[in-house]
Amino acid sequence: MSARSRLTDAQVAALARYHFALSPTVPDLPQSEEWEDAQGVLVARRAESGPAVVEVPRWQSPTAVAQRLAECRWADPAAWVGQPPADVAGLPAQVLALLPVAGAPADAATISTAAAAWAGVRATGREVEIVPVPVTAARPEVSWSTLAAAYGATLLGSRVDAEPARTGGAVLFFTGLSGAGKSTIAARVVELLLEAGRSVTLLDGDEVRHHLSAGLGFSQADRDTNVRRIGWVAAQIAKHGGIAVCAPIAPYAGVRADVRHEVETQAGRGSFVLVHVATPLAECEARDRKGLYAKARAGEIPAFTGISDPYELPTDAELTIDTSGKDVDACARLVLDAVLS
Predict the structure, then answer these.
(1) Residue 191, exposed/middle/buried by CB under 10 A (0-12, 13-18, 19+)?
(2) Beta partners for residue 99, in sequence order
(3) Global pTM?
(4) Distances (CA, A) of 41 to 17, 37, 54, 58, 278
(5) Per residue in 174-198, pLDDT tens?
(6) Up-side HSE of residue 135: CA atoms within 13 Å toward CB?
(7) Which residues pair with 42 in a beta bridge?
(8) Buried-most residue among 8, 43, 89, 129 (CB within 10 A)?
């Protein structure tokens, strides 16, 4: 048992639900004496009856919210869950807006977007109190009426989209063998996006290795770590509406799936575009100016993808391109067509 373990955002939300009596289920936490959140803040300690909460910084307790509304002289608080209704005419003068965003990081664009949707209601002269709550939108752990009652209010209605809202950002993730043309196509895609006035960041495999992943080797564990770091940075860019273009080899399907999940959690479903640059091995070897394939076949480079280490072909790519006989610009425009269509 470790002395202290770090919890995910979803685990902290589960802890908050338990602490706020929104769920009777003791959260399933790592075996530890203490637990901290993603920022390293101590949130709970082990006790005989289960986790004893110290604090849950992100989440406002229902009791505190109800007390604040009473102090503001909200005589009979009314709650609406999720996005405001299409027609706000039926809303009262004071509305408690409860946003179910459990599992989303504190700086998720989906939270700010959901909160911003209530600006139009405020513009009508109504008072709106916005409270993010540790409940999952897609599969709520408590009924909306029970949730509203916990915060001292009566439920008016709800409008909840189970899918995370798209932020407008995207990740173009190129995968393929060394020499397939990933970096060359990615660089041209970046040029075309910049010409179109889009905000774009290129995370090339070699550059990331030199800076973000300096010190990592080429074992499977280190390769996985490198790709996950690229995916995490790309997800942060997409979360705030930017476009990230990534061009690692990324030979393992499981890690590519993890990156897809990270990006779509942050930026919404469909924000991750996997491009398999499926240039045949023989063509990649023929292009090899650095002589890496020759060294790999001679045994001088161990665990070289495509020779002595596997490349797991994608089965979930949004686009597959064989660059044999195609120029760079044509390939790049195929990618843009897939992204912008």
Answers:
(1) middle
(2) 132
(3) 0.68
(4) 18, 5, 10, 11, 45
(5) 999 999 999 999 999 999 999 988 8
(6) 29
(7) 36
(8) 43
